Amino acid sequence: MSQAFDEGRHGRAKIGFVLLATEQTIEDDMFTLCPPGVGLHFTRAPIPDSITVETLRAQADDLAQAAASILPDGSLDVICYACTSGSLVIGEDRVFAELCKGAPNAEPTSLITGVMAALRAIGARRIAVATPYLDEINRREADYMTDAGFKVVNIQGLNLEKDSDMIRVRPDFIADFAARVDRPDADALFISCGALRSIDVLDALEQRLGKRVISSNQAMMWDVLRRAGVSDRIAGYGSLLRDF
Fold it and tell me: Residue 214: helix, strand or coil by DSSP?
């Protein structure tokens, strides 16, 4: 009977993502960026259509149960909490602990973890950050990245509270807004938030600014692939996936 089986469609790696209940962009982006032979598996944690420090902090108690719902056979290689602001509000240590409760065989990571790993990989220390967030989240993001060793030379948000608004921001507007947030002394520009359709403009924005541009979903895919041992280079979505 053993001769009847192979590794299935996803023999290279299986990656899980815990999304916000409101999320509408990340799944499309992950499938767009995913190389052949890698399986992507998604679940969601409850949250209202209001992205505040309070609602994000409350997600911590739901991460373990959400993680446990993905591939209970234990074959998941990596699991990621796919929210930039949520992972920095809750904190990576707590996120990892909760993910490990639900998926003990998978390596845990988070969106902010992937972003900071990507920034280190490209050698960037001075960062300009464009976000859709409320000021209360921007302040926490600046503090979190500063504590991690980065210099945030500028951070500006669109002051949006609803995830359902963040997903509707036009890519061309994202590019223009991010370019205004950039500063000449920034080593790199980071466009924060998995809800924004930022991957659509990364190549053109890097050419426009003459520097590397990191976005949340681009960095997340790069991070989970490298953690899973997948080293494919992916063109068309910024230099991070193409060159690192």
Answer: strand
